[in-house]
Amino acid sequence: MKHLLATTSALAVLLGLAAAPAFAEEQTAWRLFVSDHAAPVVHALDMETGKAIETFNVKVPTSLYRSDSGRTVFAVQGKGDTISVLSSGISFGDHGDHGDIKVEAPKLLDVTFEGKKPSHFVDHGGDIALFFDGEGVARIVSETNVLEGKPAVREVATSAPHHGVAVAIGDYALTTEPNFEKPDELPVGIRVTDRSGATVGDVHACPDLHGEAASGNLLAIACAKGLLVVKESGGAPSMEMLPYGERLPAGKSTTLVGGRGLQYFLGNYGPSAVVLIDPKSEDAFRLIELPTRRVHFTVDPVRAKFAYVFTEDGQLHRIDVVAGKIDASLKLTEPYSMDGHWSDPRPRIAVAGSRIVVSDPLKSVLHVVDAESFKRGDDIALEGKPFNLVAVGGSGETH
Amino acid sequence: MLRTIGFASLMSVITLTSLNATSATAEPLKVVASFSIIGDFAQNVGGDRIELTTLVGPDGDAHVYEPSPADAVKMSKADVVLVNGLQFEGFLQRLVEASATKASVVELTKGVEPIKMKEEHEHAAEAGGDHHHHGDLDPHAFQSIANARIYVKNVADAFCAADTAGCDAYKTNADAYTAKLDAAEAEVKAAVASIPEAKRTVITSHDAFGYFENAYGLTFLAPEGISTEAEASAADVAALISQVRGDKASAIFVENITNPRLVEQISAETGVKVGGTLYSDALSKADGPAATYIDMMKTNIATIKGAILGS
């Protein structure tokens, strides 16, 4: 239930709140955190003005992840064997009949998590699981403790180093089960452990496991032949395999994002398509072909009906997840070929309230698109190669 | 809880479009009901003139339901959407927006005299222990059969507005069903009258029975408030345990839509056996004892009476 609150509260804050006391003023604040592809920095920008607030130094070029609450941004530095944490400076208080927004300066917290090859970050209801591939260990921390500068770390070790992921669900932890014969290959299943570290039930088979996301009270984990759908039902999490439909061509998802406001998942499927996954529907998989190869995709947390995909021809596509099709496309950048290394600098997408932001690392610019009209706005110039983006913010009352 | 609040403010901007009255057509009226109890009302009034889709099915919890894109498709094709209102369906506004439905969205609690949430939860909210807002209205109006009659009239009015040719049939069906409701209500009242007044306090999981309490004279205590979304505080649970130990509550019940953990905890700590399952916000599956609204009301009072008199 905590998870539901976490995933829905931001949406409600964005959408507007019930009548507040007359003396309260409404404030909207959105911040964008931008990493650089080549430099060890994280820029914080005020999206209401488009101006830079501050640039933070980290150890090596980083990936960025935001928590569900938006209060923290984690800089996962796989090649630096460390994870840094920023306070976004934006927080919300639930006062029942209205929500308060508190806006402070963003800052780099005096908290780091050290370990070999940190990879996946998963927040579930404020419990954040950080997986370190080089050790095969998950370190689980509470966001509240991190913000207080006193993170009590709970470690969950798997049997071998591997490219894995962990999710903390109440008293339980889900961790990937490595491929013992070929530890360099993807994991083969999910193990559930309780707080004592004891395994609960059998390991759930999930060959070629890569990609997980949450949507409402469901968690999906991508496997070779389908999705492992995880439900919380009071006790230990229950899991069910949802096989890819027969109508889908051969393929699999390896990256998932979860819908906000509507319960669905959006996954990659082959190089030039995405798949909409509605686990509760008889027709659970809807493939959407793209005009060219896919670069990045995300969902709109405010306008539940929409998700966005960027393709290598430089276009941003808006997906209508109800109709299951592309309903608008917008040319934003020069072509970015998917040939070359998977981690070459290419655009990334984030949604910051009423704006969709797309990074253009080779042009040192952020493109801004009005989310309502789907028309281009003013670009924001940013030195270097702006790459990963996360947006944090919303509206609330100030007193 | 914030989600419910967001919904509250946005309900004011829902355009309750009035569908143009249609003439007789071979096509059935496409009706979406938000949850199982409303679905049962709709089927009783609409009969074979409607094609009914119910979003939150048997044993489902509408407070925390997560709508899917498929639900949005169903809503986009509907002629009439029937909802409870009073912020019962936290998911509704998102779904209305995503579906871009042109259907009439009809709140069936229109005309009901709403009651406020229970005081103990309001005080807890003031102390920061709960997330309900002041003056929160209890949405579970269907737990009074008198209110169910209002729901049924509203269903008939909505169907008549959307399908004038079928109006007579809808009204006839509504009258026949209302007569059955009257008979069911008499049974409930008689059952309550057979319970000694000193024994008429019971415990359930969440505050779903305020209208039942007002209408029929039982007192319901619950660790959770009117939405299952907010968690009970330790103080709430301790207070209920104290009530049971002081012999002020005669029986405790789990609900079909909620996690029984809290109620089982109270049962374990007091030694009072759980008296059965009450159907609060949803009907049972077709093979269960509360597959229709009338069966639900009869089953609930029979369960309560059995537990109290058998204790």
Automatic annotation (TrEMBL), chain A:
The reply on keyword Signal is yes
Origin: domain of life: Bacteria
Range of residues in the leader sequence: 1-24
Keywords, comma-separated and alphabetical = Signal
Task: Cite the source lineage.
Answer: Bacteria, Pseudomonadati, Pseudomonadota, Alphaproteobacteria, Hyphomicrobiales
- Specify the protein name: Metallochaperone AztD
TrEMBL record, chain B:
Q: Alphabetically list the UniProt keywords.
A: Coiled coil, Metal-binding, Signal, Transport
Annotated signal sequence range: 1-26
KW DNA repair (keyword) present: no
Coiled coil where? 167-201
Quote the InterPro entries the UniProt record gives: AdhesinB (IPR006129), AztC-like (IPR047701), Bact_metal-bind_prot9 (IPR050492), Lipoprotein_PsaA-like (IPR006128), ZnuA-like (IPR006127)
Compartments where found:
Cell envelope
- According to its UniProt record, which protein family does this protein belong to? Belongs to the bacterial solute-binding protein 9 family.
What is this protein's name?
A: Metal ABC transporter substrate-binding protein
